[in-house]
Design goal:
The complex is a heterodimer. Chain A is of the alpha/beta class. Chain A is built from 32 helices and 30 strands. The radius of gyration of chain A is 82 Å and the shape is rod-shaped. In chain A, 34% of the residues are buried. Chain B is an alpha/beta fold. Chain B has a seven-stranded mixed sheet with strand order 6-2-1-7-8-10-9. A three-stranded antiparallel sheet of chain B has the order 3-5-4. The chains are: A alpha/beta, B alpha/beta. The complex binds S-adenosylmethionine.
């Protein structure tokens, strides 16, 4: 049972009061008792005192009586009377005093009786005495009686006193005991009271203390409560914030969105200044920045942080939970419009999922944000982790989905495509079915036909027999023909012989005639005779030569080796030519070197024939004063016969061809210098027979050196060789190889344009030409001829030098100057005697004087045909210094029906270009005598050649600069690789094809360069313009037009180059900027240019292939002034340029 | 699919053309329809909303254009094509001192990188320049980064080897953050640029053009137009590669080309 404190106290107090009352009462009682007891003691003492006084009075009375008795004095008497009265008073007092005590009262009564008795006695005595009458005996007896009574009184007294004394002791005892008791009571009471008070005090104190304690507890409880309230608040805040944060990451954000939202929310909720969020990449172990918030330079937060690297990385690697750092000034920058500061606290929180780190948040605060933020972070981290994982999963799913969808889309499209194809197929199948039906019908028909055919076959079988017979016959005929071929050769040989016989008579007779011994001929006739003689002579040589050549070519000449002395060879030569040379005013020198053996083992006749040929040529082409020499020497195992002259020499490009049949330095030579032109061919063939060769070095105008080299043999060597010779040796039946070109008619169209105003001659020639296989058209004047050349496209031209409207020379010149016609062989004819060399120099292949007989005509046609074959073949000049390469490539091209002219050096190339017709050039960059590119420049600078297509062939990579030089001419460059010949051929064919359609289209940009405004004024002359473009075609086209308009052009092929060029050429006034360029595109370049103050105003015109509106904006935004799209309309461009140049 | 009808599609095409200038009218309708419907579903809108969006301008229309096209690509896609290019075309191109390649419709650049890798192996990447263009800026951005998900690396590697690659594809990228990052030296010779085959003109002259898996989405007429553009962008003797699924048939330019491979549709311009 618990008393309240109040009750307790009340109880205590009540108890105390009761106690006080009790103790008071008891003490009071005790005191009362004590007082009573003391009163009783006093009473007793009173009693005793009264009894004493009674005694005393009695005594006094007695004493007075005695005194009276003795003295008889009256004073005694009064005292006596008084005392005896007083005794009674006292006895009465005594009586009263012991009235309560019966015993005592009784005693007092007895006493009083005794006293009375005594007093009575004394009175009697007194009276006796008074009366004086007293007898001693009466007095004695009265005294004795008195004495007796006195002892009795004494005794009574004694008793009373004893009792009283007993009483006193008793009462005193009682009083003291009651005093003690009272004291005891008081002490006890006090003690009790004290105890109660103490108890009370204890209780109160206890209560008070308890109160105090409880107060403290309460206080504590209060503060605890407050704290709880605060915590509650914080929890609420955290919860609220957590909800907000969680809601920020809810939904289906991407990882980036999620991170951004999260950071933004955290900033709002926690008041962070900067923050960054990193996510672990899919591969793990690397954090990738997914968002930053408030960071002034986002780049300062690294995009990637591998685990374990830096604080972040380490933190993530350690899988720490949260980390708080106070950071130094400038650790992270917080920037606002008004200033910046550094946060003081950085929190890092790992976001874990399934026990591994999924991401990390770093938050910076200017001031300590308190623990609630940490708690918040802890609280939301799971949610965030889940959201991240979800977003990631979503992302992956999306990616996969996207991919599959794309694939599906592709598939669908392809299927569609297939469906279309399928439909097409179905359609075609049905078509096929139709045609199948038709086929079936046809098959039926065929079956019938077959049957018929079988019949026919049977018949044919029969015929076959006949045919076979016929074939046998044909075979026989063929054999015959073959024989007749041989016969032809034989015939030719015989013919020559047959010819020679009458010719000889003609020669002889004409000489006789010419000698005019009878002087019967006039001068004119005499000259005719000498002409006959000379022509006959020529003819004879020709016949001999043809014969020889035929023999040699047919391999039907047998060398007959014998021992001859060198000296005899020399003297023979000398004998033959000494005179002729002298006649011509030449020195002839014949010598042998020391190395030369005295005896030669060789075919005497053939050797001499070769030497004669060479020397006669030398003499022929050397005019006085000059020198011709023959020297024989032996070098190693070879004999060298060197024929040197100081004649007109042979141009390089002809050197190879002079050994060909019917070719000499030029076609005309034979006519000037006589001879058939077969001599060298024969010589070469013979040299071949000797297993030797003839080589030539010559400088035009200075002379030529022919060297015959044949192996030095002795008789012993020859023994071994002879059997071979014998098998070869057959009956000599020479074939006529010279006829071959004429005979080998191949289906090619030959068109002859006859430019001739003489109708009769023209008709005659036309007939001859037609019979010779030409299709002929006739032009009667120069103009008409030149027009017809374009339309008729002749393969050969015969040109009369006298035309009504213009000189033949002019026509020739025009023909030769036109690239399209310069290849057509032109033969000139004239009634007058033209100096034909002149004509030839001007490009004619020959000259013939009218009238032209059948033979000359044929000759002419042959020559024209020969040249014409060249015409049909494309002529490529191959400039290549490596002989092997040259041959390899040349053969390849030749194999592809291209005529190849070989040049092994730049000088040779130039010579060929000057003298020969070339359709295109293959140029090796590395040449022995000149840089190929310099040569290219040289060729291009020559207006005659600058249109020649060139393919640059090079073994090594060209430098950028070199490439630029080539590209300037837009020629293809072919790097030599294993398969590059293929491309080389393609390129060559390509340009050859381009050449063929003779109607050249005028170049497009040139044609469109018709802007009147621009043309009218020379506004652009000297202005410099930068053309930045990567498209070569565009560069060519534009730079051509712009240069025509007077600009000087700088070219850049990418944005960087453009800027560099601009830097190097401050005089550039305008820029044409292509948008699509490598390295740096036009937009970027424009932007950069605009950043430079001094270029801020230079006009830039963007050039782009793009058509979308957006692009235009982009260009202008970057700083371009205007915009033009590809393909560029030149007029528009020029107007634009003009506008901007004037605006600037 | 039921989101849109062909008529709606036509209306959309017209709107797109009016707003952006880009013309989808030459695209095969079924594919376009599918893509457009997909756009609507993924962006959770219907056609009127989309039209409204476009109307309001901004980049919506460009985003739409990019999503109407299909940007799927692979490294060394159709390995036999690359094999052939290497054996037939590269040997020829080798002799050029400078080379320009055009990958038209390059999507996210895989084809261009593949080409660059083979050029590098053939030894003339240094003198080559690969222009890789596409309509989609988004795809181009990815292409410029040259970053591909590793998930595909396996297929890519297999393709590469099947195409006759001489090393390992992984020699050409390094792995960073679960991505394959193509070597920068490959990137150096590739120019990525925006170009619309249907509207933009020729911008350069190329020795080699690859336009694969692009024209299957075009109608026949548009194909002819694009063929003309490709033809005009080819240098003489240059190569045109259309890949397995497209041919020069019906292009009207058949006789301007020599067939190098008829199944892989590799052609050489000869006139
Ligand atoms: C399927 S991808 C082909 C990618 C790559 N050529 C290949 O075969 O792997 C087709 C690409 O063509 C692009 N494209 C579609 N229309 C285009 C256009 N008119 N002009 C340029 N590119 C276009 C698309 O953006 C897409 O990236």
């Amino acid at each position: 049972m618990q008393f309240t404190f109040q009750r307790q106290v009340l109880l205590g107090i009540v108890f105390s009061i009761i106690l006080v009352l009790v103790v008071g009462y008891v003490s009071y009682n005790a005191i009362l008792l004590q007082q009573e007891n003391t009163g009783w003691v006093d009473h007793t003492r009173e009693v005793m005192r009264v009894s004493e006084s009674v005694k005393n009075r009695l005594l006094t009375t007695e004493a007075n009586v005695r005194g009276f008795a003795i003295t008889g004095n009256g004073a005694f008497e009064t005292s006596y009377l008084q005392a005896s009265n007083e005794i009674w008073k006292d006895v009465e007092a005594l009586r009263k005093l012991v009235k309560d005590n019966k015993v005592q009262s009784v005693r007092v009564d007895s006493l009083s009786d005794l006293l009375e008795a005594r007093v009575g006695l004394m009175r009697r005595q007194y009276e006796i005495l008074k009366a004086g009458k007293y007898s001693a005996d009466t007095i004695q007896r009265i005294v004795l009686q008195g004495k007796d009574i006195a002892s009795k009184i004494e005794f009574s007294f004694r008793r009373i006193e004893n009792i009283e004394e007993g009483l006193l002791v008793e009462r005193e005892q009682l009083a003291s005991s009651s005093a003690v008791r009272a004291k005891q009571y008081i002490v006890m009471g006090s003690l009790l009271f004290f105890m109660v008070i103490m108890l009370l005090y204890y209780f109160i104190r206890k209560t008070y203390l308890a109160q105090l304690a409880s107060e403290k507890v309460v206080q504590q409880a209060n503060s605890r409560l407050e704290e709880l309230a605060r915590e509650d608040q914080e929890k609420n805040w955290i919860l609220k914030a957590a909800i907000e944060v969680s809601s920020a990451v809810r939904g289906e954000p991407t990882l980036g969105q999620l991170s951004e939202r999260l950071l933004a929310k955290l900033a709002v909720v926690t008041g962070s200044q900067v923050s960054a969020m990193y996510l672990v990449t899919r591969s793990g172990r690397v954090l990738e920045r997914s968002a930053v918030y408030g960071v002034s330079d986002p780049a300062s937060a690294p995009a990637f942080v591998p685990f374990g690297e830096g604080i972040l990385g380490q933190f993530a690697a350690d899988q720490g939970d949260i980390k708080r750092m106070n950071v130094a000034q400038g650790y992270l920058q917080v920037k606002t419009a008004t200033g910046h500061s550094s946060p003081g606290v950085v929190l890092m929180k790992n976001i874990s999922f399934d026990g591994s780190v999924a991401g990390l948040i770093e938050i910076g605060y200017l001031a300590d944000p308190g623990t609630k933020v940490i708690k918040l972070l802890e609280m939301v981290s799971d949610n965030v982790a889940v959201a991240i994982m979800a977003a990631r999963a979503r992302e992956m799913a999306n990616e996969l989905l996207e991919k599959t969808q794309l694939q599906a889309e592709e598939l669908e499209s392809q299927q569609e495509e297939l469906r279309v194809t399928n439909e097409e197929l179905t359609r075609q199948t049905s078509l096929l079915q139709v045609s199948e039906e038709e086929l079936r019908v046809q098959q039926e028909e065929l079956k019938q036909i077959n049957a018929e055919l079988e019949e026919k076959a049977f018949m044919l079988e029969e015929q076959k027999g006949t045919i076979e017979e016929a074939r046998d016959q044909i075979q026989m005929k063929a054999d015959e023909l073959e024989r007749s071929g041989r016969f032809k050769s034989e015939f030719l040989a015989n013919m020559s012989h047959e010819l020679r016989t009458p010719l000889n008579s003609i020669l002889i007779l004409s000489r006789i005639l010419g000698e005019n011994k009878g002087a019967r001929l006039n001068e004119e006739e005499q000259r005719y005779a000498s002409v006959i003689y000379n022509s006959g002579n020529d003819l004879l040589t020709l016949i001999n030569d043809i014969l020889d050549l035929a023999k040699v070519e047919a391999g039907k000449i047998e060398l007959i080796y014998e021992n001859i002395s060198t000296e005899s060879v020399l003297s023979e030569v000398k004998n033959t030519f000494q005179k002729i040379a002298e006649n011509k005013g030449l020195t002839l020198q014949v010598e042998k070197s020391e190395s030369c053996p005295a005896m030669l083992f060789t075919d005497h006749t053939r050797l001499l024939q070769v030497l004669r040929n060479l020397i006669s040529n030398a003499v022929k082409f050397t005019s006085a004063p000059g020198k011709v020499s023959l020297s024989i020497s032996k070098e190693e195992d070879q004999l060298h016969f060197v024929v040197t002259d100081t004649g007109i020499g042979i141009p390089f490009e002809k050197q190879a061809s002079i050994f060909e049949a019917f070719q000499q330095a030029d076609g005309s030579t034979s006519r000037k210098y006589g001879g058939t032109g077969l001599g060298l061919s024969i010589s070469r063939e013979l040299a071949g027979l000797f297993k030797g060769s003839i080589s030539l070095t010559s400088v035009p105008g200075e002379g030529s050196v022919f060297t015959l080299k044949i192996p030095y043999l002795t008789e012993a060597d020859q023994q071994a060789a002879i059997p071979v010779q014998e098998t070869v040796a057959e009956r000599v039946k020479p074939a006529p190889p010279a006829m071959k070109p004429v005979a080998s008619e191949n289906g090619k169209a030959r068109r002859l344009l006859l430019i001739e105003d003489d109708d009769i001659f023209a008709a005659d020639m036309a007939a001859k030409a037609e019979s010779s296989g030409f299709e002929v058209q006739i032009a009667t004047n120069g103009r008409e001829a030149l027009e017809m050349v374009g339309s008729f496209n002749p393969t050969a031209i015969i040109l009369d030098m006298h035309l009504p409207d213009m000189e033949g020379e002019a026509v020739l010149k025009e023909l030769k100057n036109d690239m399209r016609t310069r290849l057509i062989p032109v033969h000139t004819v004239s009634a007058g005697s033209y100096f034909d060399e002149e004509m030839v120099r001007k490009g004619a292949i020959g000259f013939m004087q009218k009238p032209v007989d059948e033979r000359s005509a044929q000759q002419m046609f042959t020559a024209l045909k020969l040249e014409g074959t060249d015409l049909e073949q494309q002529r490529i000049l191959l400039i290549e210094d490596d002989a092997y390469q040259s041959k390899y490539l040349g053969d390849f091209l030749t194999g592809n029906n291209i005529f190849v002219l070989y040049a092994y050096s730049a000088a040779e190339a130039l010579k060929i270009l000057e003298t020969d017709r070339v359709d295109g050039i293959i140029l090796d960059v590395r040449l022995s005598d000149m840089n190929g590119l310099d040569l290219l420049d040289k060729i291009k600078q020559n207006p005659q050649w600058n249109e020649l297509p060139v393919v640059v062939n090079t073994a090594e990579d060209l430098t950028q600069a070199d490439l630029g030089r080539v590209m300037k001419y837009a020629h293809p460059v072919v790097i030599k690789t294993k398969k590059s010949n293929e491309r080389l051929l393609d390129e060559v064919k390509l340009f050859l094809k381009k050449i063929q359609p003779k109607s050249r289209e005028p170049e497009a940009p040139k044609e469109s360069f018709s802007n009147a405004v621009v043309n009218a004024e020379q506004a652009f002359v000297g202005k410099k313009l930068l053309l930045a473009d990567d498209d070569m075609r565009n560069i060519f086209a534009l730079s051509a037009v712009l240069e025509d308009a007077g600009f000087s052009i700088e070219i850049a092929t990418n944005g960087k180059e453009a800027i560099n060029k601009l830097e190097d050429n401050p005089e550039i006034e305008l820029i044409l900027m292509d948008v699509m360029m490598p390295e740096m595109d036009g937009i970027e370049a424009t932007r950069r240019i605009r950043q430079v103050p001094r270029w801020a105003n230079i006009p830039i015109i963007a050039v782009t292939a793009k058509a979308m509106q957006g692009d235009r904006e982009q260009c202008l935004e970057a700083g371009a002034n205007d915009y033009i799209s590809k393909p560029v309309d030149v007029d528009k461009l020029l107007s634009l340029i003009k506008v901007w140049l004037h605006a600037a | 699919m039921e989101l849109m009808e062909y008529d709606d599609l036509e209306a959309l095409i017209v709107r797109i053309r009016e707003i952006s200038g880009f013309d989808f009218s030459g695209y095969a309708r079924p594919s376009l329809l599918r893509r457009a419907s997909r756009y609507l579903t993924t962006h959770k809108m219907d056609l009127p909303q989309l039209l409204l969006h476009i109307e309001q301008g901004g980049s919506v229309v460009y985003g739409l254009i990019q999503e109407l096209t299909v940007n799927y690509s692979e490294m060394f896609r159709d390995p036999d094509f690359f094999r052939k290019v290497k054996s037939e075309v590269f040997t020829y191109l080798e002799s050029y001192p400078t080379l320009r390649f055009w990958v038209a419709g390059c999507a996210s650049g895989e084809e261009a990188y593949s080409l660059a890798i083979f050029l590098k192996e053939a030894g003339f990447l240094g003198r080559s320049l690969v222009y890789a263009t596409d309509l989609s800026n988004k795809a181009l951005t990815a292409a410029r980064e040259g970053v591909f998900t590793l998930g595909n690396a396996r297929t890519f590697s297999e393709n590469y080897l099947a195409a006759g690659g001489m090393q390992s594809l992984s020699d050409y990228y390094h792995v960073a953050y679960n991505k394959a990052v193509m070597l920068p030296e490959l990137r150096r010779n590739i120019v990525f640029s925006m170009h619309d085959l249907t509207g933009d003109g020729a911008f350069n002259e190329f020795q080699f053009i690859s336009c694969r898996n692009v024209m299957i989405y075009f109608t026949l007429e548009l194909r002819q137009k694009v063929f003309r553009l490709l033809y005009n962008s080819l240098s003489m003797l240059g190569f045109l590669c259309l890949g397995k699924r497209e041919t020069l048939r019906y292009s009207g330019l058949e006789d301007h080309f020599k067939v190098i491979d008829s199944t892989l549709n590799i052609y050489q311009k000869i006139k």
